[in-house]
Amino acid sequence: MANSFDKFIEEVNKISIELSEKQLEQFRIYYEMLVEKNKVMNLTGITEWDEVLEKHFLDSISLIRAVDLNQELSVMDMGTGAGFPGIPLKIAFPNLKVTLADSLNKRVLFLQEVIDALKLEGIEAIHGRAEDLARDKKYREQYDLSVSRAVANLSTLSEYCLPFVKIGGQFISYKSGEIEKEVASSKSAVFLLGGKVKDIVKFELGESGRSFIVIDKVKGTPKTYPRKAGTPSKKPL
Fold it and tell me: Residue 109: inside a domain, yes or no?
């Protein structure tokens, strides 16, 4: 039996997303490339069709619960890994202008293969660490939105991601489990970096509880941040 999109379509319709046949085909090709590349390179521990659709694709585009994505926005996906959430967001919302950033060049080369195969425009994959890219004028405070599904505490993620956000924009972190204490303990770091926690958007994804931490960029990030490579994760603010 061929892999079916039925349940996926049902779930995306619940969050007011309609996908064309072309977009569904792009998701299918992406899945096939991901599973094939995963045989020779560690991209994901999740490879079953239904699980990838739910835990990677649906989770990524669920960002619509926290921000209106049906507009032209520039998006920095920091620590994108295998392309989540940036590539699913670009497929579902072609109007987004997306930058995928990762510190491992092998992953960036794979992402470029995916971009080419899906014929996506208005999306780039760049190689670099957040600490270095955030000091480049080309990227610093240039984005409406910075997103990350990377696993790190919110203070560290904020130091990685907030420097890319222009004043008036937002950093949104994908999180799972209980996050209230983590959010509370990160508030001083977020403030120091020019941000302010605006909202926590909770939702169910299959059996799992998921959250978006929405942080508004209210003032410029001091030039001293992010600190040199490795410091944000070793010594969170």
Answer: yes
